[in-house]
Amino acid sequence: MALRALWLLRHDPAAGGAVLFSRRYPTVELRAEAFNGSARVPIPSDSAFLEALLLELKLEDEHLFVEHRDTCTRISHSCVHSVSTAAGELWPVLAFRKSGLIYACVPLVEGGLEPRPALLTVRGLSQGLALLLGIMDYVSPSRKNEAELSSKVGQLRTLLIQACPLGTPLNTNIRGLSSSFEDIQEMPADKEQPAWRSSSYKGKPQVNVCIAEKVKCMQYDQRDVVDTWQVYGAVNCKCDIEGAAPNVTLSLTLPSNAPPLQDIVVHHCVTSVDPAMLLSTSAEPLHDSVYNGPYKFPFIPPSDSFDLCYYTSQVPVPPILGCYQLVEEGSQIKITVNLKLHESIKNSFEYCEARIPFFNRGSIAQLEHKVSYGQLDLFREKSLLVWVIGQKFPKSLEVSLTATLSFGTAGKEHPTDYVCTGNTAYVKLYFRIPDFTLTGCYVDQHSVQIFVPGKPKITASRELISSDYYIWNSKAPAPMVFKPLLD
Fold it and tell me: What is the mean pLDDT of the chain?
């Protein structure tokens, strides 16, 4: 869905026509060459297009019979036109007239032009119409005020950079974009202020830092399949500090026995880092020469919240170890789920639950179960069991669930999955541990340096969240893209 060109035209019966604004998109034109081939008609010059469109809309020479326009075979009740140019018939041209102004564009046809495709199949028509209506809504209130109209037309090019970058309409609310554009403060005269600090803060300095780590995991409990897990973190900052270009230095700290941070990517506001920090990658095995700190980031913060850096780490164990077994016995299914919280993990959750879906079966007809801890919720029509473990594991750090289920007849309304066929099934864990990271990474509030007057208020927090944490049925084939070789 893209536009080859668009125009804002004016027509006055006494003064004639004029081009107020035009915009062409060369990259879309290259796509038109590829899609349309030899049938493509190039976009004419603005003056030639204006003349041809006025003739097509019967705003010029309307009292004369023009065969290509007035023949009975070309009766049209839509605002999609075929405009006759020196190079041929330019189609489709979306154009309509409102209060003396003409709004027009040429959508890209992503396919052949011979024979002409049905209008409903040209996806750019609806987007083009929405964009033209947005421009009309923005321009029309000022059509009686020449100075205001000129000012708005002058801003169109800037607004269309946001609304229709590279010819692709993304935001058709031009008036809303204009309001945002007018609210942006002018860049201050202070040459030291970087472009990403769009506004100045007034008040007591304060810094909020949050380290959010997510852990992905695939556990199979099979001898010939390797379990995998990955930790990746983001350090989010919000710095309310006075000054055009305040300097802040933040350090990440790790326990002495923790694996190093790797694959570090920093925000563009960071002024300098040790190059060795950025070269450490998880694609290589850990060894003594791997960079292991310090992780110091001097930066000039943006005005809004931002992610200072991202990282990964090769932690030795996943936070929760699990085993899932599902077997069929006649018309029934028996499942066993065992979970164990690793002793190094903080036993304090905001929430922790295991969801056990059953695909390609009917609704759950009967259920007998036993849980050693927590409670089991049944969602019959969704063919889903939710084991709510709660905010803590027991002192043993181990919990278990056994259940026997039977199902009704499968129907279209029941959940299906192309991977989970036969007995291939999984348990998915959802949990969040506040004030904890799997890597042990934290921000020492005393290490945050702010070079501005006054004592700043510094708040630091951290959290560990599950993300795609799966435990697969060990009694069925494991779904894998490839099978790694075992040492």
Answer: 88
